[in-house]
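Running this now, will post back.
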Amino acid sequence: MKGIELSRKYYETYGIEMLDSLFGDVKDRITVGLVGEGSECLGFDDELSSDHDFGPGFCMWIDREDERKFGFRLERAYAKLPSEFMGYRKPLVSPAGGNRKGVLITEDFFIKHIGIPRAPLFYDEWLKIPQYNLAFLAAGEIFKEGEGKFTDIREVIKAGYPEDVRKKKIAANLALMGQSGQYNYSRSAQRGENGAAQLAVYNFVVNAVKLIYLLNKKYCPFYKWAFRGMRELTVLSELEQPLIYLLETPNDKESVICKEGIIEDVAGMAINELKKQKLSDALCNNLDTHAFSVTDKIEDAELRNANIFLGE
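Update: finished.
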């Protein structure tokens, strides 16, 4: 059973009754669901996922002011819910913190994951947040909406990057792809620097994957789920296997020629999508040139004129 389904069933079996009977006067202040770190929130969990932090349970987000009023009672009530459900044990709640389920203070939850207790408002705030943190905050499922701050903040994150920020990040990925794939890979391979050549390929692939998510207006998840998530994208998901091939193959003479061709094919397909989305007006196959063309379309002058790698 998928973790998010297990969590929902546990809430429906025990959580609803707990809130109705013990917290009827404040239950509308509580948001319930499963959002945060963990493959189950992304829907990518499997048999291997059950070896840690897996089991029945759900999150209850309350604002700090509500935590002072009824947070302790809510924690005690949650702790008393059955420890076993459908053959799984509920993860223990640690008083030292770091819990993924149970009672969570909204402001602290977002400070932990995005560095601020509210939704990002300014470009520099968006750019500082690791993309994979935004990915898991946008994923998961809400079982019951509450009147607190949690839903409002999450809805801003789920809406995706402001368009100027998306363009800045796209430009950075294009520039890094051009530098590592179209320039440094061939030169490193020609010198016989196989380690450097493979690092160049790795950097090309990492930035290509991030670019593909941005072109889908999605956040790229943590690296171990990046390719898994690509299969569910609608734009350029077919590049998964060519990118994996670049990582898995050696750098002998014949392979280098093949990989150079794949790099140019990936670049060409990315450029075609840039043009479809009217993000670049450049006419060549040079990714650096397209990076600056995308930058020119950023409306905010300060962000447009900032270092192109600010969006990295």
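The chain has two domains: 3-158, 163-311. More later if anyone needs it.
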